[in-house]
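Run log, item B.
One chain of 293 residues. Sequence copied directly from the ordering sheet:
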Amino acid sequence: MVKLTAGPRTLRRVPDDWNDKAYEHIGVRPLAPTIGAEITGVDLGRPLTDEVFGEVHRCLLEWKVVFLRDQHIGDREHLAFARLWGDLEEHPFIRSGATDDVVRFEKGAKMGGYENQWHTDVTWRAAPAMGAILRAIEIPEVGGDTLFADMAAAYDNLPESLRTRIDDMRAAHDFVPSFGLLLDAERRAEMRERFPAVDHPVVRTHPETGRKTLFVNGVFTTHIVGLDEAESEALLDQLYAQASFAEYQCRWRWQAGDVAMWDNRATQHYACSDYWPERRVMERVAIVGDRPY
């Protein structure tokens, strides 16, 4: 006998008191009920007016990740767009772009993709990135999609008793179980001095929308503060699983020239590594964030 499972109780894309007015300067095509929208009518090769940028910003807050097709821009335009959002973040472990602000992901026959785990970027920082802007340079004919998960919907649809339990919990985040494995002992110790393990709320409050979002991930979160190892692991596994529900996700099929921007405070993402040995070349610029609360 097949067991039927009820769908999500709550699927909100915006706070309850959001003024959900029409967009006047850009086109917006939603990809899923709560997360992901394609923006049209914007050329990132030219400076954005205040009115257009304001609506792109609102669209990002509303849909959590936005996509723009056919933006055949270079590093200068990529960086200029990112700077509209704030100071840029240098990644201490992955660079190889034209400047220290640009991270280049170049995959092919010699190195396949490895970002195929649900995660929020750089949560091992005291102030994780506010967001990131990813540009597609070379894309395989098939494969290499990126999925994004709405961590506000993921939180909303936890059982009420579990939400109450975790609302005041904190979790530790660390680079060592991921990037640290690529370093020798001396370099790892040096980077540990710069980036000690940090604690963040298990449930953070979005500083612009006020939404609560689930803020643990299976790549950088190591344990729940104050719980023994077994209890911490069991709880984290339950929370990590929330990103895997298709009801909270959108999926983007890349084309060369596409640009995506995601709100790192409200999402997780997963890059499908299903294209080896084909080439996939992307460049990312991240914006400095603030301390989660």
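Observations after the first pass:
- Residues 91 and 103 are 7 Å apart (CA to CA).
- The chain has a mean pLDDT of 94.
Flagged for discussion on Thursday.
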